[in-house]
Amino acid sequence: MSLTNQLIATVLAVLLGLVLSTLYILSDSSRDTLLTQLESHAEDSATHLGLYLAPYMQQQDQATIATAVNAIFDSGFYQQIEVTDSNNNTLYSKTYDPASVIKAPNWFIHLMPITPPEKSRQIAFQWQQVGSIHVRSRAGYAYEKLWQGVRNALLLFASLSAISAIILSWLMRHLLRPLQGVEHQAMALARREYIEQPVLPRTRELRQVVSAMNLMVRQVQLMFDEQNRNIESLRSTAYRDSLTGLNNRRATLTQLTEHLEYRQDFGPASLLIFHLNDLQALNHLLGEDATNHLISRCAQSIQALGQNLGPHVVGRIGGADLVLLAQRRSLDDWQLLLEPLLHQVRSQVKKQTGAVESADILSIGIASCDTPTTSEQLLTQARLAQQEAEQGGNRSIALYHTQQHQQGWSDQWQRHVATAIHNEQIFLQQQQLVDNQNQCIHAEVFARILDQDNTPCQAGDFFGVARDLNLLEKIDRAIVKHALQHLQQKPECPVLSLNLANQALAEPAFIEWLLNTLKHSGVTSRLSIEINETAILTHMESIKALRSTLSDLNIHFGVDNFGTHPNGFSYLYALRPDYLKIDGSLIRHIDRSDEDRFFVSSLISVAHSLEIKAYAEHVERDSQRIELEKMKIDGTQGYLHGVPSTLS
């Protein structure tokens, strides 16, 4: 029961107790008064009858006696009137019918016992005793009069109580409304939402409570903000280059490995190394501050270039070396894209030195791959190309020579991939996510196609083609259809998790089709949708609307590749996913790196504070899992639990 209702009930209970006590006291007093009146009536009636009936009693005129007694008896005050002669023989007796019902409840009669008074008077006529009159008052008359007064008082009390309850309810709710705001603040605080009540109540006690709650909200917000700043500071210290703000060497190499060797989500990729030639000479020529400013400007330009190219990785791997990983392009295309950057660097050096514009300030090496390769191999090739550009005089851009003949996917392979996707010749593989007791939480689904030799090919072999041909939406449609069909046919299978592509999420028509399909599937409770962190931050408003609708359909929602985006994770407060998967690049060395352990532990703490499950992906060693379990991870996924298998 709410506090308002409790207060109203308490007030009414006190009032009811007071009214009942008052009624009892008044009824008891009224009873004594009525008994006194009945006693007086009985005495007066006996006296008056005696004076009137004395001669008739001497004559024993029963008819006249009966007439007189009946006239008085009909007033209803009397239980019995009896007239006797001098020998105590009854001349006439009138008694109230004992079968007559008293117009009062039995409980009231038992509660208010009444003993009716009796009066007798000796009658004399002409100095001679002629008899006596006995009058006994009727208790029922007293009960009826008492009950009538009590009933009217109760009805009046009930009416006044109803009116008072309505007024009191409104008044209490109005006065205690700030407490509802405090409750709302407390619930919001549990969800990491910080709400203050701008209007303070006039009641002193409530004003103090609301002020204290507002102060607590501000303090908790400051505490959580400080925690987030500490985590972001740790991220910057461990993974960010202090000069450029890009990924530092360690984070860059880890992400290159993640994308090229594990996700293989770039398809054919190009890795570029940007090298400022003879950094020591530049420091001597421009000064250290100006050189640092030049490096920072180069980093900003490369980052802006990467954002325009789509999926990319950019970072600083040395004092004079910056790298960019992006989708594969030909040397001619790269030269067109990089020429403004080269011109900007040369102009800045010329502006600061006043010297003639030099072409040998920046050298760029490019290494491209069409098939999955290691990050180490691609970096080595790009370094060789960069050294060739540095030594090549006026040629600032060089492509690793063994790649000169490659032009990306063959037309035959592109036609094969396009045909397979259009015909929905896609099959699914799964990899289980398990909890700390090795129980399956869900199985993440991966799409695969067969190559020309009918052999399953990896995602990196066809996703790049699908992206270039704008077919990722069709792949996602096929994945959703096949997964729903599998769930409908096999009710005993685990929950399936589907990862939607960024390209598909940018299409409103796909979102509409997806929600309509899911709504009519009948298996939404056994489905989970995952979206890449980058896609969420790119389409935040539409993803929030999608997440809300999925929640209404009882579909779990997760964030994939969590923890590496430079914009941080403040979006979690607004999005409130059911779970998140910490990016594999942060898990790779967690059993060897103190920085990774501390950072991942902080991410898990943030998730748990928002009641969000935290999972780790790409777990390959027992030592990794042991460290993660110490951090209270909710589940792990990776080759440690088995390679992806066919969904069947």
TrEMBL record:
Q: Which CDD domains has this protein been placed in?
A: EAL
Record Pfam families? EAL (PF00563), GGDEF (PF00990), LapD_MoxY_N (PF16448)
Q: Which domain of life is it from?
A: Bacteria
**Which residues are in the GGDEF domain?**
267-402
Q: Where is the HAMP domain?
A: 173-225
> What residues form the membrane-spanning segments?
6-26, 153-172
Provide the alphabetized UniProt keywords.
Answer: Membrane, Transmembrane, Transmembrane helix
Query: For the EAL domain, which residue ranges apply?
Result: 410-648
Q: Which SMART domains match?
A: EAL, GGDEF
Q: Which PROSITE patterns match?
A: EAL (PS50883), GGDEF (PS50887), HAMP (PS50885)
Q: What is this protein called?
A: Diguanylate cyclase/phosphodiesterase
Q: Tell me which species this is from.
A: Marinobacterium sediminicola
